[in-house]
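Why do we care about 3D structure at all? Because function follows from shape, and shape follows, mostly, from sequence. That is the central idea of this module. The next example makes it concrete: a single protein chain, its amino acid sequence, and then its structure expressed as tokens.
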Amino acid sequence: MNTNKNFMHLISYRSVIRLLLIIIVLPMTFITLSNCSGDDADPQPEPTAASEIRSISPTSGYVGDTIEITGTNFGSQMSTNTVRFNAITAKLTAATATKLTVTVPAGATSGKVSVVTNADTATGPEFTVLSLHSVDSFSPRSGEVGTEVIISGSNFGSNKSLVTLTLNSLSIPVLAVNDTQITASIPTGAATGKFTVTINGKAVESATTFSLITENPVISNFYPSGGVAGGQVIIAGSNFSLTPEDNIVKFNGVAAKVINASSSQLKVITNYGTTTGKIEITVTGKSGISAMDFEILAPVVTSFGPDKAGIGSTIQLYGSNFGDSLELIKVKFNGVETEPYYLPSTNIVWVRVPSGATTGKITVNVGGTDGVSATDFTVLPGLWEKIAQLPQSPSRMDAITFSYGSKVYAGLGQLQTKDFWEYNPDSDTWTQKADFGGTSRAYASAFTLSGKGYVIGGANNESPYNQLSEVWQYDPSANTWTQKADFPGGPKLHAVAFNIYGKGYITTGKSDNAYKKDMWEYDPDSDTWTEKASMPASASVRIYAAGFSVNGKGYVGTGFNGSVKLKDFWEFDPVANSWTQKTDFPGDARNSGIGFSTGSYGYMGLGVTNVAQSDFYQYNPVANSWTMKSNLPYTMQQVASTSTPGGYGYIIGGNGSVSSTFKYIED
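And the structure:
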């Protein structure tokens, strides 16, 4: 029994001890855990009293400068302070309760400095953010001792005592300063180098070098020893300015342009009007003169081609000393000036014959020096004028065209379209008319009768390929197409067609792949065709011939007979129903040329020999003679041609160096 009581007392005692331990240890554990939950550093009390800024030092500076702010009740940790320069937050580099060290932030502007702590915001005095000065340029770029130099830039201020200027580390006296310019004088002991401007401890160096000139420039050599005005010359020597524009270079008194400079070499370009003579170089008032003359070479015109052409034609001039600058070349045709447009080398220049030019010598002037051709250039009569282009004209080969009154009508061709257009020469415009009545086609022929146009034959390149014998009539007044009686000679391609005294005629060409030389006459009143005399046995069959009618006769020439190109020329008399051979076409044998007539003359030309041609000739049926006329300014073939009253011929579409529309005007 006593044993049990002792045991019970022991339990009660131990329980009390445990309870006391819990009461004592648990709060200490909580305190320890609380202390461990913070930073490893000793905790710092946050400011509880109002902070105050007493001063900032310095009170002005540049972005990136270090500033100290002194006061009271700042946070002793950097993280408990926010410093702003006129609302732009700065980076702190150190902090105590009485001093903050910060860096002026990018974007800061002049204004109040403020410090934000957990307790409040303190606003201090204004801080002035200074703008860093710049050195943009200086003038002159070279000079001798005593030369006054003006350095241009920004933010120099107006107090010269705050400005330090050095040249190649040598201090330079500042004579005057304003916000954008510093005036200084080059002192004894100076050397070539860069300027450095220091303001408020900030140094800014010039981008370029000032050249100190101590002696007269010396010209020891130059090359080439001669050339054309406008050419490049290398001058070797000494005491040149490193700045190109500070070297004043003259050739026999005419200023040249310096494009590159070192102390021992200048690269210059001679100017218009330069003549043979000495070279003089002046640098900051000091001069040097070459011992030898620089010789200006006159241009030489040895030949030109072609040697005869019309207004607007391209002429290639051959020779030497043409230089390498189109701007310095002027060309005259018997005194009438024109501008060259292409200079493939110093020995070749391309020009166009100017309006008003007459037969005579060609003069080439390079930089003010003349060269004259030994032979005359012949200006051919006639004028080609580029007019408004037929819509979709490029590559519109083998189209058809005819005229009524002063209007021109054109369409069809290898584009395989049916569009048809009217040209008004008064407004130089094209107007689309009713589409062609049949299928699209190329290689057809056309003539005009009684105010209506007729389109004969051709071929449709759409699948399947169809050679055609259809005849279609166009009425310009009603803007309508009407199909007429088919051509009875079978399909007709690549033929020549014209009108004579109210009847239409078609000859040569191809039918069912056979080359032809037949002649047919069309009567529009009865809508009938009558076969006439074919070309004689001595005349070859042919395709792609050219022809026209004039003075009641028809004329056909050139073409291709399946083996060779042709240049023979034939006259058809519808009254006698006979053919007579005439003087051959004067150009090279060809096919795909053009033919039309105005007044009492016929015209033929262009086409292709082994290459496209641009030559053009007038035929006089009374004299049975040919006269060369103005070349087309371009080479063209497979064009359509027609003429209108007043001496105007038209060519449309085609293929060659250009596809366009031209009007020919007889002188």
